[in-house]
Amino acid sequence: MEKRNFKKNKGLTTADVVVAISILTLFVGVIGNLYYQLAQKSYMVRFNTIAVYYSIKVAEDIDKMPYEEVSDNLNTTIKETYQLPEGINIVVEVHNYNETDESKQDIMKIVTIKTQYQYWNDTNEYQIKKLKVKEM
User: Fold this and answer.
1) Got the DSSP string for the chain?
2) Domain coverage including residue 38
3) Exposed/middle/buried for residue 109 (C-beta within 10 Å: 0-12, 13-18, 19+)
4) Which of 10, 26, 74, 136 is the most core-located residue (most Cβ within 10 A)?
5) Looking at the 3D structure of the chain, how many domains does it have?
6) Kind of pairing between the strands at 88-96 and 122-133
7) What is the pLDDT of residue 5?
8) Rounded Cα–Cα distance for residues 62 and 56 (Å)
9) What does the alpha-carbon distance between residue 24 and residue 34 come to, in Å, rounded to a whole number?
10) To the nearest whole percent, how much of the chain has pLDDT over 70?
11) By percentage, how much of the chain surpasses pLDDT 90?
């Protein structure tokens, strides 16, 4: 009977397969997690951009409105007028500049545009404050 040397047989051992699978699993897990986080942050930035766009759009339209029409009543029509996406909420607060001192003329209003949006578990809020001056 001839003696065989099994060490010269070519092939994979169980240890080689286990090491290869563990390295592959580690690599796929890290790359998958990085891709997931990148996609999440990308969508969050996009949603943030949309929310800021609508805030600026509301501010620009308030500049075009007559002084008398700028009031808290704008909140009733904002959602329909601008067709805000789901998750974005805009509230307009209007205060007369002379409300603390009646001796001053009613020529300015302080307008605060609050934009709030929720993306997954993060809630963000932006405020834009501006003055609306009565044209004479």
Assistant:
1) -----GGG--S--HHHHHHHHHHHHHHHHHHHHHHHHHHHHHHHHHHHHHHHHHHHHHHHHHHHS-GGG-SGGGGGTHHHHHTPPTTEEEEEEEEETTSS-TTS-S-EEEEEEEEEEEETTEEEEEEEEEEEEPP-
2) 11-133
3) buried
4) 74
5) 1
6) unpaired
7) 65
8) 10
9) 15
10) 93
11) 50
User: At 16, is the pLDDT very low, low, confident or very high (cuts 50, 70, 90)?
Assistant: confident
Residues 73-86 pLDDT 10s:
888 888 888 999 88
Residue 56 domain-assigned?
Answer: yes
18: pLDDT confidence band, cut at 50, 70 and 90? Answer: very high
Q: Is residue 6 part of a domain?
A: no
Q: Is residue 21 part of a domain?
A: yes
- 5 domain residue, yes or no: no
